[in-house]
Amino acid sequence: MHQRTHKSKNSTSRVLLGVGLLLLLGYCTLFYAVFMTPKAAVSENSEQVEVYKEEISKQEELISELHNKITSLEQKLTTLPIVASSSVGDMGGGDSSIRPGVMILGMHRSGTSILGGLMNKMGLNTGGPLIQPAEDNEKGFFERIDVVLQNDYIMAQQQISYGSRCHAYSPLQGIRDIVTNTQDPNSKFFNEGKRALAFLNNEQNFPWMLKDPRLCITFRTWFPFLKFVPAIVFTYRHPMDVAVSLNKRYEHYPIGKGLRMWYVYNRMAIEQSNDLCRVVSSHHKIMTEPRSELDYIYEGLKKCGVAAPHKVSDEGIASFIDQKLQHGKSTIKDTTCSGDLSQIVPPKELWDTTDKAHITLYREVMRVYCAFENRSAFKDKSFKFLESIKDE
């Protein structure tokens, strides 16, 4: 963060230097007009000279105002809101802070829609309009259209899309882009975000939940514009299930790309939420033990200060979880985490490869997945992700 702030200050200095050079050029022009032209001409142009002086005075005021705004912005960007948690793990937090909202973080095709639908049945508000159900998500996405669109716009400013270069995203730069564009009365860049914030910051809508897989990347950018720091529910799914689903869906992403996306999304979600009150779940638990897992999430939210109105009823679970849905099935029937991860290879029926780079990637992805399963990724402070894995 210090490096980013340092770079921003250098950029600010260069902007001010450029404006200063333009101002110097104006002074030179004025000097020539006053001292280098014939006296008669000076007399004739005295009114123009006064115009020059007035314009230069205005520019000096604008430069001073610009400097003050940039200095103030830099001070705000050096820190982001933080909620300390008593423990970081599968139920981080436990402090007495009241949080009227929760964000669901999880990679695409990881069961976030099923989880979002069930949490909605706890009485957590989503508002709307929402993205409508589709062939690949029959029960609905439970994603606000304005949030999804705004996330796309914020990411695009950094030449990033949901399926490419997410590893390069800077939350601080995202904040800068929002602040810069909102200062322009003609800019429509943050219009969708303003609509979302009108809902999220209205106490009549508490408690709410917010869900979009892109939030794994962008959620810290939203924090300065919220009236409070929300709780986090993080969920994950077996990486090969996710990669196979992305390969079969309309994107037809290669398995290797799907695994790299899984890694980057989960890395950024975890690393950016380690200081927050967080509840950890999994798609497998939701599908196989929905009653106990949803009760666990409900109690976890209470400890994080989110007062969900009620638990999900048995009828609500039965009406929502459909084991026949293709995206709810698991293609993995293994006990990989109980074996030697340094010797495993991808399931041949899912990824028939002998490429050494592919095998190395698979082993690292499975190392992280198994750390999710035994919770060491959340409890062990020495656990590290590899930043060398990128979703190009």
Structure notes:
With 392 residues, the chain is mostly helical. It has two domains: 2-77; 101-379, Rossmann fold (3-Layer(aba) Sandwich), CATH 3.40.50. The protein is 51% helix and 4% strand. The protein is built from 15 helices and four strands. It has helices at residues 2-35, 39-44, 46-77, 112-120, 145-156, 171-182, 191-200, 215-222, 239-248, 255-271, 283-288, 290-303, 314-320, 356-373, 376-379, and strands at residues 101-105, 208-211, 231-234, 278-280. Strands 2-1-3-4 form a four-stranded parallel β-sheet, with helices on both faces. Helix 5 packs across helix 7 (191-200), helix 9 packs across helix 10 and helix 10 packs parallel to helix 14 (356-373).
Strand arrangement within the widest β-sheet reads: 2-1-3-4
SS summary, helix count: 15
Number of individual domains: 2
Query: Which CATH class of the largest domain?
Result: Alpha Beta
State the CATH topology of the largest domain. Answer: Rossmann fold
Distance between the termini: 23 Å
CATH architecture of the largest domain: 3-Layer(aba) Sandwich
Please bin the fraction of helical residues: 40-55%
